[in-house]
Amino acid sequence: MPNPSSPYWWGNNYFGYGTSTLGKPGIDNAFTTASTIKAIAPAALIYRMIQIPFHRRSLVVDSASTLKSLLGHYKASALADDGVVVSTQLPHALTAASATEHTSNSIVLVVDFELLLLAVFALYFVASRTAWERLADVQLAVLRGYRPLSTLAVALAEPIVVVLVALPVGLLLAWTVAVTAANSLFGPGVGASVTLLSLGGALVSGVIGILAVGLGVRRVLGAADVGEASGVSSARPSTWRLVGDVAAIAIAGAAFVELAVTGVSRRSGATNTDPLSAFAPALLALALGVVAARLLPALLRRTHRVMRSRSIAWVLATRRVARRPEFSSEIVLVAMCTGLAVFGVSGWAINARNHTVQNSFAVGASRVLVVSVRPGVRFLPAVRSADRFGHSAMAAIVERASDGTALAVDTRDMTEVMSWPPGLSAGGSARVSHLLVPKGLSPAVQLSGTELRMTVTATVNARPAPQLSADVIDEGSQTVYQVVFGSLTTGTSTYEASLAGMCPASCRLMDMAVAWSPPTVTPTKSGSAKLTILSFSELKGGRWEPIHAGLQDPRRWVNPTGGAHLSTSPKGLTALVNLNPDGSPVEVSPHDVPPLLPAVLTTTLATYDSTPGSPPPIVGLDGGTVFGHAVGQVPALPRVGGDAALVDLEMAQRFLSGPLTYDTTEVWLSSSAPADIVSRLAARGISVVGVDSLEARGRASEHSGINLAYTLFLIAGIAAAILAIGSASFALVASARGRDAELAAMRAIGISPSSLRRSVEAEQTLAIGTGVLFGTGAGLGAAALTLRSVPEFVRLAPGPPLELGLPAVLLATGLATTLIVLSVVVQLGSSALVRRASIEKLGGSLR
Amino acid sequence: MTVPPVTTGPDEPRVVAGGVDVQLIGVVHLYRQSGSDIVALRGVDLDVGSGEMVALLGPSGMGKSTVLRLMAGLMTPSAGMVKVGPHDFGRLSAADRRALRAGEISFMVQGSGTNVLPFATPLQNIWFAQHGTRASGKSPPWTPRELLEMLGIEDIASTPVAALPLGLKQQVSVAACVASAPRLLLADEPTAQLASAASADVVRLFQRINEALGTTIVIVTHDSSVAAMFPRTVTIRDGRVGAEGRLGEEYAVVDGSGSIQLPPRVLEALPPNSRVRVIETPHGVELRKAEAHE
Predict the structure, then answer these.
(1) How far is Cα A275 from Cα A518, in angstroms, rounded to an integer?
(2) Residues 196-235 in B contacting A (C-alpha not used; CB under 8 Å)
(3) Segments forming the whole domain that contains residue A489
(4) pLDDT, tens digit, for every residue of B56-98?
(5) How much is the pLDDT for A569?
(6) Does domain B22-246 correspond to CATH entry 3.40.50.300?
(7) A826 and A846: one domain?
(8) Are B75 and A228 inside 8 Å of each other by CB?
(9) Mutate which of A133, A134, A140, A143 to disrupt the B interface (most B C-beta within 10 Å)?
(10) What ipTM, to 2 d.p.?
(11) How many folded domains does chain A comprise?
(12) Cβ of B99 under 8 Å from any chain A Cβ?
């Protein structure tokens, strides 16, 4: 048998479960040569493992199925030919990678679809807004007897050329951006290349763009009929436009009905995705934009009739917005841009926040040190003393077993150190830490001397005289020792017992016991004893020092085994003991251990252990089972996830019935932990063997596919905001081309330039403001309703609840910035527009 | 002005210059509006001979432009017949009328900038105007430069139209309109917004084209000085042909229903609802206002 006190074993008894059936000790993992293994174990118990290196670029997710198939063949042949069982984690890793890739692709598709829809609508807007510029050309073609196809060519040639030129330019631009940003976006060593897929995507976008342009110029072809009175379009929507509006609203409505009925938008915490969630933001923005574009003119007409404003600027603006159809498409475009910007920024921010929460939850704290504790060191007090300022370092022990995991932490520091997401439990970690330590418990009776002394007045009615003993536990080595004081005799006597070699640092008194001596007695024998413990002291440094055990306080002592009646008096603790006939001791214990260990259970563990009326079993720190008392339930616990129980470390230690198996010993640190904490721990016999930190996890997930996909959300949001600003600028420029004469004529009839400028500002403010308002509503609605249905937000693994609250501050800042820029654009554009329309220019055209 | 040789291939059909006669018989035209129709023409009878130059006069809204658009085949009359040469527009499809505008008929709309591409040069504009002819498989009778030389405005051949003064711009418009040597040239207010000198230049251009090619030319104008340069004027009033002037002499016109529009000055003596006696005399017909007791 190995010597547990050998330095190799650090004094821990790793052989508590005895020896293996082969008569050889069950040892822990060791790294040694094959010949050594062969020498100590029979071949049947040896598992061989071959590690095969893979070149990073030699294996991609797409080839996973091929690899799995090959591995299957190899496993079968290895088993058949050599009797070798082959196993590898590679397929699992590939499956996980494939799932991540699928999720990332889904998110990228969401963003791509939104951007494509936006680009198409922007093209439509630009084409329809500039259509009147080509009206004269098309009319001329009709006048000159051009055939319909030739007329169409005149109408479409310019925008199609623009789209065709924009395609390769856009592709080149995208490629340049991808190459430039590849290092920071995808990580070092990852390149960007133009693939057939991207070429195909560009081609499809081009075709859709040309179709959008075709739709945009269709009005010109209608208006180019120079025969009948034509040319002035009205705000009254055409039948086709009405059909389009109804279709857009109906599709958006259908999407939301689908989400509400079969998707997850109406259920919190659901775990299925809905592909429709990808379409919802754009559709909602489009539908709301259409509603806004139709409502605004009607509202303005009614307002105009009711208010009878005397402001010429306001009258001009409202009449123009109410009557000109181009404002409708501007409102829809701005609404779509704003909606997508709000949705994109919300998606990115919510994802970033949840990733931080999840990473923080996975780590458990800002930093977690996996430590090794020198034998004899009391882990919990050592960590507390190393934590110079308090509440920045928390001792934790993770005990894993097949039926669950126990996470025992120093709840004194839990609130400040542990990552406990706000939605994880009611009241947060402060309430949990409070619940894990029951009230009314006495402080532990700690012993640190070399001898114990008790002065006891006893009346013994038993023969032979019963034996007085005490059980103490060395919390450093988690070893329970029995200290025997000797036979109890009638009268007042002083009893002494040695603690030599038992408590290198200190021990905790578990109980004092009275039992037949010797223990093997006739079962029918009866006897009793009345003993009053007058004093309790220990020998420290050659002097006897009293132990403050509260012998006069009745609340500090209990009789867990039964068989004794306890009372206190100023003299001390009196116990009237009826000796057990079976020889088992009658114990008197400090009231420092609750009857059941308070624990917060994860939902899954609580479900497994849900035997009505019985306390849930929890994995004890010694690897055994401890019955607990569920004080709370959470979906998952920090660092250990599901199937776990959270207990107070100090409490859990009092439930020890054997040595700790010390699955994992950790020190959790808050972000404010001092820099010298590691050296201070080391000075107390706690050495760091591994570090897990939020920062490292953040770095690791920085270039993950999912994070990258959500970065695209942000990029899409910014692009949409820029497009909104661009479309407003373009609307002004487009207005400028055709409004010179109109504005100059107004100036000629005496309307002041400032009134005209205010009028242009007011009309743009009406259009842009309505678009921004409805777009913001659409974006917020889409984010609130559908983000929980977007892949990745639907978590299959247990974890903290998703935080889907909208990033109000970020959105408000972004919207305010966009509105300020838009306001500046509108003011500058309006001024330039009015300045350009001078009366002199009007006169010049009459020459 | 002489017509330059046509530079086409030996087998290509060539556009033939010359005029065409135009007939409007009992033409009525209504503009359909929601709620009510507007009667633009109430029975117009008008003959324009081949190679003739006619100016349509009359107050605004009396139907002059409608007459011109009907002649161009841009629309069909609500009733009556419009014939250009052998073509009865009531029997032609829109495509056939479009084909006529690609060669035989040219229409110059009102406004200096609307008949040309402002960003293009005169050469390019003429090429653009000839496209309809080329698309129908025929060769234009001249190249753009030859036409500009013929019209005496070759020095602005390569200047973008937008950069030209209004008068020259209108001359380029006229050039573009005759680019395919139409047999009927219709112009709506071709001298509007032009100073008198520029107006005269444009009219002289019409006259040169008429003399050189024999093109039938009908214009609409408000300008009496412009009208005076045309050998024949037709005044449209209340949707009918009200009067006709030839060589400075104005005549009332009897329409198909026997109605006659009295000149405005006569209306002072014979206000509406006056009863008159129509008395035939050896020199003609005399209208005498009936006495109150009659």
Answers:
(1) 76
(2) none
(3) 446-590
(4) 988 888 888 899 999 998 888 989 999 999 999 888 888 888 8
(5) 87
(6) yes
(7) yes
(8) yes
(9) A143
(10) 0.76
(11) 4
(12) yes
